[in-house]
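Preliminary data (for renewal application), calcium ion complex.
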Amino acid sequence: MKRLIIFGIVMALLLIIAATLATSISGEVIKSTTKETILFGDDFEGYDVGTFPSSGGWELWFNGAGNEYQIIMDNVSASPTKSLQLLGLDGWAAFAAKRFTTNALKIGFQVNVRVNETRGGVHDNARVSFTRWISPCISREYAPVVFEDDGTIGSNGRILQSYIPGKWYKVTFILDRPSDTYCVWIDDVLCGENLNLTTTSLPETEHPSYEIEAFSVSQCYNHIMVYFDDVKVFTVPTLRIESIARTPMAPNYDEDVVVSATFTGDVEVDQAFLSYTYDLTWYNVSMSKADSMSNATIPSQPYGTLVQYKIYANDTNGNWVVSSIYSYSVSDLIPPEIVEVKWTPEEPTQNDTVKVAANISEPVDASGVSKILFSFKDCFGQWWNTTMTYNDASDLWNVIISQQPHNTTVQFYIIAYDNAGNTAVGEYYFYTILPEFSFSAVLLLALASITLTIMITKKARLPNKSCL
Ligand SMILES: [Ca+2]
Ligand SMILES: [Ca+2]
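Predicted structure:
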């Protein structure tokens, strides 16, 4: 029995390792636990009941129903015994904030929130957000997560989920400052992903997130008891993939593609990979660093192949980041090659048709020959166009030129097209039609020749009288 248990444990471990390796090899988005750096945390256990937690650096920016209500309580808590209570008024919030400073690109908070009751009013019951002080009566909140009086939790006009009075909810909020987008989790469930950051001050676009100076919890304006506990404000060391480029931009079928990128952010890159696919499989290549760039190569692919690629990397904290997916379609920018053009017979007469055969070449990965145009000038000086026919057996393109009268000079040339629209114009060729002798003409010519020979011979045998 013991052996069986050990065997089971070993098998389970092997399966986990195999699953991990499979994830790595696939090149798909790899999620790992985000390691954060905590700027401050507070469970409100270190304060006296009935006091405001000023000693912990909290500030009561607006005092709602009165200072006496904005206090530490020990009859309600998420953990273990105490929490911060806030109570607002209609038109005047109870608003507690704690300042912090960071230049981190990605910042977040987490807080437990409990609303005592809902009444269906128009104001909200509890808010948690990053904040900036504006004036003694105004703060600017950055996309606050709001517990509405209708029993919903929302942010930026979007309902994330509903909530029940008297129950604790853990809100996690992570803001990406360069893109001004954020994500929200309620009880560790992602409810809002990459939402655009807005603020409660107008115009929204004029308040960059680097102006954030505090984290705040508030109750405005329903005069309903709300509680906050287990606050945590943190930064997420962030690696960024930037300046993604490829060379060449429009790769030919015979060209490798070098993909390059730079890695920036507030943490060092540990490993970087180029992941690409031209079928259903993603292939991963380690990127190598050259100066400020990291490069990796996608091997040349046949014409028309759609290649998709992305870059992913992890930082020295083990956090992974993945780029968007980019793509290109492999080009063919090279015309077909006209290797050889021949015709038979080479010296045709007016009784011959002439067969022209052309050897046209395209590399294996190129787009291929689409058609061959044959253009020739006949006995009337008229140019004609036709297409040549491909012959599988000979791997040649053929056309037949009809019989032409004696003395005609036939001219022709060909234009080769490939499937990518490239054209190659060949040189001009020409031949002249020779006269064809009939059998009787040849016979007469032969007789005449024989007669002439005899006459010359006889004349040669006569005595030279002058020599007698
Ligand atoms: Ca507590
Ligand atoms: Ca081509």
